[in-house]
Specification:
8 helices; 376 residues; six-stranded antiparallel β-sheet; alpha+beta
């Protein structure tokens, strides 16, 4: 087997974490299991403190393979607002297995850089104490978490045929459909593609929140996209973004941070997509040949800010996403999950209950809607 190409095999966005009462941790081990779609013999990890305001020290970084083999990386310090790539380490990895990445934070550490993701492949753990090198975390000191801190991307030295598919978006993409897509690819025999998730709950294309209440909603598209498209071996990207631009504005009399002036026109949304995403790709030679697929926005009937004006904009934007020659194709997520008789609503069993986010069944339908050509 000839391993001569670096490809991202796992990835996540980095945003500011939700500002709760406690934002520091000390003497804690983070452990993240990662499904490996490719075989390879070297790994390198990218860590992010993009939204932190203090340096972060990773005192131990340990990777454990499925066969029990382990390797350690040199400790790293990530300066605030920066991302850093580790050294390359030798580790034999077999496709279809799961590795574990463990991080030990010895001193007081600002936990501002991370994001919340869910799905069948996205389950982390943390334990109080130094257990980075332990095969098992102690049950009485360990809890599950879906917050992924600092670990941003894993690259593997693998075969030339392998490539990455980037799923870019907001909370819809931060939830389960990319994991189901990864499972679909594996189960369907598409063994040369990895699914890289770049998603931040609450984020918008055209605006961002610069207040403590909504900082976890992340950066706007123009700021996020250049950072999050740093994906080694990317061949294509699905962009499913924009619903928060439509549903967030409510007026200052209701919420001082959500003025009506934030409400875009359809033309502004379309122009934003072209200028932020398409033009960026056109300007960067290293992204030449990248296939760009649009992803339609899902039904919102019953959501707390729903009205006909917002839904008319959503449907018009979807029509543009389906037909614009800017894209190489469209993943029609809306068609996959909407009710056939009442297209403004989710189909029966496809609503999570909040009338915005899909159910797990619907997330599987979204994964199934992705064309096979993106997985080949």
């Amino acid at each position: 087997m000839l391993y001569n190409k670096w490809v991202a095999c796992w990835g996540n966005a980095t945003s500011i974490t939700d500002r709760k009462e406690a934002v520091y941790a000390k003497d804690i081990t983070l452990r993240y299991p990662v499904f490996m779609p490719f075989s390879g013999n070297k790994l390198r990890l990218r860590f992010s403190n993009l939204t932190g305001t203090e340096p972060v020290s990773l005192d131990k970084i340990v990777i454990r393979a499925a066969d029990g083999g382990k390797t350690s990386m040199k400790p790293l310090v990530i300066e605030p607002g920066r991302e850093v790539t580790s050294e390359e380490v030798a580790l034999d990895v077999t496709a279809g297995n799961t590795i574990e990445v463990s991080l030990y934070l010895k001193g007081y550490t600002q936990m501002n850089a991370g994001t919340l993701i869910t799905g069948p492949l996205s389950h982390g753990k943390y334990a109080y104490g130094d257990f980075a090198e332990a095969d098992e975390l102690p049950l009485d000191l360990t809890r599950n978490t879906n917050w992924f801190y600092f670990l941003n991307t894993i690259d593997i030295l693998t075969e030339e045929k392998n490539h990455a598919l980037v799923c870019y978006g907001d909370s819809i993409t931060a939830q389960s459909w990319p994991d189901y897509l990864a499972q679909r690819a594996w189960d369907g025999g598409f063994r040369n593609v990895s699914i890289i998730r770049r998603a931040v709950s609450g984020s918008r294309i055209l605006r961002q929140y610069d207040c403590i209440t909504y900082q976890a909603y992340g950066l706007k598209g123009a700021t996020r996209f250049p950072i999050e498209m740093d994906v080694t071996g990317a061949a294509s990207v699905i962009i499913q973004h924009g619903i928060n631009d439509i549903i967030h504005p409510v007026g200052k009399e209701v919420n001082p941070f959500r003025p009506w002036s934030d409400m875009p026109t359809l033309e502004q949304l379309e122009k934003g997509v072209e200028e932020i995403y398409i033009d960026y790709i056109r300007r960067h030679a290293d992204l030449a040949g990248l296939k760009v697929y649009s992803g339609t926005l899902l039904p919102i009937y019953g959501w707390r800010t729903y009205n006909e004006m917002r839904d008319e904009m959503r449907m018009a934007f979807n029509d543009w996403l389906r037909t614009s020659p800017l894209f190489d194709g469209c993943v029609d997520f809306d068609a996959a999950v909407r009710d056939k008789k009442n297209p403004e609503r989710f189909a029966q069993g496809y609503d999570s209950g909040d009338h915005l986010h899909p159910s797990e069944t619907a997330y599987k339908a979204m994964a199934d809607a992705v064309p096979e050509e993106l997985l080949r």
